[in-house]
Amino acid sequence: MNLRPRRLIPLLLLAACGDCIADIYGFVDENGVAHISNAPLDPRYFLFKKEPLPGPGAEAPPESKHPVPDTTYVNPTYRMRYSPLVAAVARRYKLDVALLHAMII
């Protein structure tokens, strides 16, 4: 295998990357527009989804006004009920349906 050193650099950088985590904060404004961020940008944002901490000794994020359950459960009845709406919104805004479902969970 004959790889040039400059071709190895991206592979080495990729191998050195660790896991990424991000909590999801959001709110819906008075016009019905959803605002989503990885950090609360103002007091209207609330913690929507909390990612687990990476390991022992990790720094805990600030507490939220809205508690997040320890486990995520998607009720299949609700998913089937709202799937057409999620699909319509995804088409309208040219989003991937699976991505939009993942953001809702």
Would you kindly provide a brief summary of this structure?
By secondary structure, the chain is of the alpha+beta class. It has three helices and three strands, in the order αβββαα. It has helices at 5-16, 76-92, 97-104; strands spanning 24-28, 34-37, 46-49.
Number of DSSP-assigned strands: 3
Helical proportion?
25-40%
Question: Strand count, sense and closure of the main sheet?
Answer: 3 strands, antiparallel
How many H/I helical runs?
3
Architecture overview:
The chain has helices spanning 5-16, 76-92, 97-104; strands spanning 24-28, 34-37, 46-49. 35% of the residues lie in helices and 12% in strands. The protein folds into two domains: 19-65, no CATH class; 73-105, no CATH class. The model has no long low-confidence stretch (mean pLDDT 74). It has three helices and three strands. Strand 1 and strand 2 (34-37) form a beta hairpin. The longest helix has 17 residues, at 76-92. The chain has a three-stranded antiparallel β-sheet with strand order 2-1-3, with no helix packed on it. With 105 residues, the chain is an alpha+beta fold.
What are the SSEs and their pairings?
Blueprint: H1 5-16, E1 24-28, E2 34-37, E3 46-49, H2 76-92, H3 97-104
Antiparallel strand pairs: 1-2, 1-3
